[in-house]
Write a structure and sequence with these properties.
The protein contains 11 helices and 13 strands. With 297 residues, it is of the alpha/beta class. It has a single domain, classed as UDP-N-acetylmuramoyl-L-alanine:D-glutamate ligase, CATH 3.40.1190.20. It has a 6-stranded parallel β-sheet, sandwiched between helices. A hairpin with a 5-residue loop joins strand 12 and strand 13. Helix 1 crosses helix 9, helix 7 packs across helix 8 and helix 9 runs antiparallel to helix 10. The two termini are 24 Å apart.
Length: 297
């Protein structure tokens, strides 16, 4: 069983379904509203657990009703919460998501996620030391992202940095990652480049190996030499929320099988995830992924 540690955010997603996106200043009647457990860290932890990994999460929730619900949901998924703090007098993180036209718009309010500290990451050293792969994103303070990268290097563990939401960080941080997993826009921001520049050129300029997601097209990956394409798996998309998180989780879970196989399985898992509503709602179980890959063979 692969052991995965995720350092990242935990949110309650407030999801509105609509026939289209509202224009600026426009009031539009929606079709449905629901609350869904989310946050990039929690999403990746849940996806990895469903794919058969032993998963621990490092993060924080508020001492509110959302925090209680989020903890209960993660516990049901089998995620270890030993290093998830409950922050007094603080709200849990939220993400307001509008789903329309097969796509989504998202606004995140960090809440307790902004209180994840480097000290908390260091306190989880024994858990990170037992990991086969470590996942970290950028919905927590950047100093805690750096602490995760540096601790992973000290421990000799592969850290997958999912640079979302994209922000510029010092180049020496990026060299600490075993893999960067951006989309084209995120990679351009990381490198301070033009977002219209060819993504394959950007991949070759990156200071660490890159696994770049391209939506329905699949993914491209490069450790050395020319980038290699892994084709996507055609499906009928219902909701793309959480597809990137599913991809990253699968990449971590299957990394011991080698990068090409891990990328292929990550593309398949991400494809399955968009066929159902909700970030965590669409994340496949291991048996579903195995059956999907068998049909695609």
């Amino acid at each position: 069983m692969t052991r995965v540690v995720v350092v990242g955010s935990i949110n309650m997603d407030l999801v509105t379904l609509a026939s289209r996106f509202a224009a600026p200043g426009e009031t539009l009647l929606g079709e449905r509203f629901l609350t869904v457990h989310g946050g990039k860290g929690a999403n990746q932890a849940v996806a990895a657990a469903r794919l058969g990994a032993q998963v621990a999460l490092v993060g924080a929730v508020g001492d509110d009703a959302f925090g209680t619900q989020l903890r209960e949901g993660l516990t049901r998924e089998g995620v270890s919460l030993e290093h998830v703090a409950t922050i007094p007098d603080c709200g849990s993180g939220t993400a307001s998501i509008t789903v329309a036209e097969g796509d989504n718009h998202i606004i995140v309010v960090p809440g307790a996620n902004a209180r994840v500290t480097p000290a908390q990451v260091e306190a989880a050293q024994s858990v990170l030391a037992s990991a086969d792969a470590i996942l970290v994103q950028m919905e927590i303070p950047l100093e805690s992202v750096e602490a995760t990268l540096r601790l992973g290097q000290r421990l000799g563990k592969p850290v997958i940095l999912n640079p979302a939401p994209a922000r510029r960080v010092p180049t020496d941080w990026l060299t600490l990652a075993r893999y960067l997993t951006p989309n084209q826009h995120e990679l351009a921001i990381l490198l301070g480049a033009d977002t219209q520049e060819d993504f394959r050129t950007l991949m070759q300029r990156a200071p660490a190996p890159v696994v770049l997601t391209r939506g329905a097209e699949g993914a491209w990956y490069r450790e050395s030499g020319e980038p290699i394409h892994q084709a996507g798996f055609p499906v009928q998309a219902v909701d793309t929320t959480g597809a990137g998180d599913t991809f990253n989780a699968a990449l971590a879970v299957f990394l011991p099988e080698g990068l090409p196989q891990a990328v292929r399985k990550a593309c398949a898992a991400a494809a399955l995830s968009v066929t159902r509503l909700g970030a965590q709602g669409g994340m496949p179980a291991r048996a579903e992924l195995d059956a999907f890959l068998a049909r695609a063979a």
